Structures are given as structure tokens and as C-alpha cells.
Amino acid sequence: MNDATPRRYTGTLLERAASIYQLAPGALPPLALDDERPFAAAYDDANDLEPAASSSAAPVALSPAKANAATARTRAAPVDRRRVSIDRDALAAAGMIVPGASVTALAEEFRLVKRQLLLTSRSVAAVDPDKARMMLVCSANPNDGKTFSAINLAMSLAAETDAEILLVDADFAKPDVLQTLGVEAGAGLLDALADPGIDAESLIIDTDVPQLAILPAGTRSNTDTEMLASERARAVLRGLVEANPRRIMVFDSPPALAASPASELAALVGQVMLVVRADRTSEADLRAAVGLLDGCEHVQLVLNAVSYRPGGRRFGTYYDQEPVK
After folding, report:
1. What is the pLDDT at residue 304?
2. Of the candidate ranges 12-21, 131-140, 242-251, the one whose mean pLDDT is the lowest
3. pLDDT-based confidence at residue 10 (cuts at 50, 70, 90)
4. Distances, alpha carbon 154 to alpha carbons 32, 69, 199, 280, 296, in Å
5. How many Cβ atoms are within 10 Å of 278's Cβ, its own excluded?
């Protein structure tokens, strides 16, 4: 992983980034990959799916009054929520940030990434304070490491002293967040969008990681993209943000070139962190992905699957050094 890179680019982006950060694509195995299942298996044709029982009706389009009412319900008194323990051994085995463990090179990398994202949030807040606290983690194609990046970003942000992180699994076709964390899935975002009677706040799962909670993807249907485009979706997400002034929402999105919900999600958030596989993502795919995510003004790039050249910048050893006497 590496620093967030500005959206504007010309020429060969990956070569420029490699030159700036002294990176050597492909010299080491990638930090992490998403599920290696073939695309056809991971992202089924919607026609092969049975509609969810709670989603048989068309997407709900709320009037402003009803949208406000939905938001008010979401901001109601605290509700009883499930609490789980995160599988730290699984995180360590996957090479991820482990809460409470010693500082690693990966942890330092994500500290740099999140600082840039938090700076962008402050800029967005001047225009839309609610959107400023919603971030989307996406990629152009499957297996680029976006779920790995979303979880690590959430873990890093949860270490902030003045923030509470809600990690949302919004990759509805292939929801891997809860499985990666060792948590049993349940009702989630799609259920709240499909049924106005469901309070999204009640579906949040609290964890034993301080300041980190999870919202599952929920029950998939044939109208996932349409539900995300509805006024109900805007009301639910704003309600979740406004329910807690310290809350930052991190969405794990499906790949932009693989599933249509990504572009709808981009229009709902304040910024997008686009994960780029340095040894695989083509410039054409990158430009196409950015084009599909143009509903969000702030798209920043993060390189994955890179290694450091000798003499280049390297994290991880500083904290292990003995003090000079």
C-alpha cells in the first residue's frame, strides 16, 4: 500500500507513481487479494437470483417528509445491538493490521493514507458535513485488494481518538468483510433499504475493537442498484451519520467495472479511495473506473501489490531500533 495519490493524472500514471515512491511492481507477492473465484462465479447474473422476501416490492422512493421521518427513526434512542469479537488470529494470518499489536510497516502505510483522507474530509465538510464522514473503498476489477484495504483503513481510523468507525460491507454480490473478521453475517444495509420499518441503527454489530462497528451487506435482491439510487438510501445513510457526530462510515464497494452498485455508492459519499493493483490494473481500466465513479468529486488512488527498491523509503524498522546511548 502507499500514499493516497491525487485524482488528476496524465500519461502513464503507474510509472509516475512508481518513480515518485521508488516502487517496484510485482517484486513481491501482493499484500492481499480478494477472493480468487472466477468473475462469473463471484458476480452472478442478477437473473439467476431469487428476490429477497423482504424486497418483493419496487424500491421505495420517499417524499422529503417521509425521508425526514426515516432519518428521525434512525436517530432515535439507542437500541440493543449484537456484539462480537474480531478474530485477531485470522487478521494476523492474512497480513492485516491487528488491533492492539505492535506497529508494523502496513500500519504506518495506512496512517499516511488515512491522514490524506481525513484532510479531504475537512474540505468536503465545508460543502456537505454529512457526506464528509462517508468514504468508499473501491477498485477497478476484482482481486485488486479493495476489501483488504477497506478493513485495514477502518482499523487504522478506529485508532483515532475522536472518531467512531462504522465499516459497511456494501459489496452485495460478494460480501467478504464479516467472513474475514470472523463474524457471522446477518441482516444489514439492503434489508434496511428494502423495508422502511427496519431501523438501520439496530442492524449495526458492535465489536471488541474500540470505536469499531460493522454493518453487514444484508439480503441480496434483483434491485440492489435501484435501491441505492432511491431517496430511501439517502435518508438511511444520512440518518446513520447524524445519529453519531463522531461516526465515520467506510464502505467496501464492489469493483467499479464489475458491478453497477459502485457508481451509485460513489454518488452518496464524500470521497472514494480507489485501490490500484500496480502489477495488474491497466491505465484504460483505471480511467474507465474513475469515469464510472464521477458521481463523487474526490477520487484518490492507492497503489497495492508493490515492493520497495533498495534505498527507497521503508517503514517498520524504526520502532524496533534500540535508542542511541
Report:
1. 85
2. 12-21
3. very low
4. 16, 30, 23, 25, 20
5. 22
* CATH topology for the 13-320 domain: Rossmann fold (3.40.50)
pLDDT at 19: 54
Report the mean per-residue pLDDT for the chain: 80
Give the C-alpha separation, 15 to 21, whole Å: 10
Q: Residues near 12 by Cβ (< 8 Å), separated by ≥ 6?
A: 283
DSSP alpha helix (H) spans, the chain: 13-21, 39-42, 64-74, 88-93, 105-125, 146-158, 177-181, 189-194, 224-228, 231-242, 261-266, 283-292
Q: Which of 227, 246, 226, 224 is nearest to 236 (CA)?
A: 227
3-state secondary structure of 314: coil
- Which residues fall within 8 angstroms of residue 111, CB to CB, at 6 or more apart? 156
Neighbours of 203 (CB within 10 A): 21
The pair phi, psi for residue 279, each rounded to 5°, is: -100, 5
Tens of pLDDT, residue by residue over 207-217, are 999 999 999 99
Q: Is beta strand 164-169 parallel, antiparallel or unpaired with respect to 247-252?
A: parallel
Closest among 156, 97, 143 to 305, alpha carbons compared: 143
295 vs 256: CA distance, rounded Å: 12
Tell me the C-alpha to C-alpha distance, in Å, between residue 244 and each of 13, 77, 130, 131.
38, 11, 11, 14
Residues, the chain, total? Answer: 325
What residues does each domain of the chain span? 13-320
pLDDT in the model for residue 278? 85
Predicted pLDDT at 312? 53
H or E, element range at 274 = strand 271-277
Cα atoms in the 13 Å half-sphere on the side-chain side of 35: 17
